[in-house]
Amino acid sequence: xxxxxxSLLRGEPGVHGGGxxxxxxxxxxxxxxxxDEIVKEDVNETLIYDQSIRYLPGQKLRQAxxxxxxxxxxxVYK
Length: 78
What we know:
Layout: E1 3-10, E2 22-27, H1 35-38, H2 59-66, E3 70-72
Parallel strand pairs: 1-3
Antiparallel strand pairs: 1-2
């Protein structure tokens, strides 16, 4: 099971014309996954160096996120 992402070019917020633009990885929403599926993933992507969860996760979920597998996609799911 992979976490699908795509690169997105974004400018600096608050700067007229966008300022310096950078590419950021953005998760592509699509298939529903369970916690058990998430904790089975292996790490093999070196370009993504930071990830976070917006609530206080348990140890099992933190460990799964640290070992997540990422896959770049070009098309957004409908």
